[in-house]
Structures are given as structure tokens and as C-alpha cells.
Amino acid sequence: MAALAANLPAAGDAESKPPRTPSKVAYQCEECRVKVWGKPDLSLICGDCHGIDGQIPHLAPVSSY
Ligand SMILES: [Zn+2]
């Protein structure tokens, strides 16, 4: 006879979800809108727009997606 009653104690898998800490951040140039992915807390500049007006365009992190 097969016992169908499954009253087993729950195995402790309630905390299997990792916290939502993004490991990648999208950065976008404000001039040419190019977008790159990288680690958080990077300081990036755009090579295409660099030096056009003697400025150094930094890529700002965007929080879409
Ligand atoms: Zn650019």
C-alpha cells in the first residue's frame, strides 16, 4: 500500500532568496547616449566625446531595466 499522506516537516528553504543587490549597473554618456554595463561605483568617461569641447564627459549611471 502506498501512503499518500505527506505530512513531512518543511525543509528550511525559506531563506533561499538572495537579497536584491545589483552586481551590474548601466552607465550612459550624456552626449552620444552610448550605454555600457559595469560594476557599481565605476568612474567612466566616453572616449568618443572626450576632448570635443575640451570637456571630459562622464558616463552617468542609469537605473532603468
Ligand atoms: Zn559619448
TrEMBL record:
Region (Disordered) location: 1-22
Feature: compositional bias, Low complexity: 1-13
Protein name: Small CPxCG-related zinc finger protein
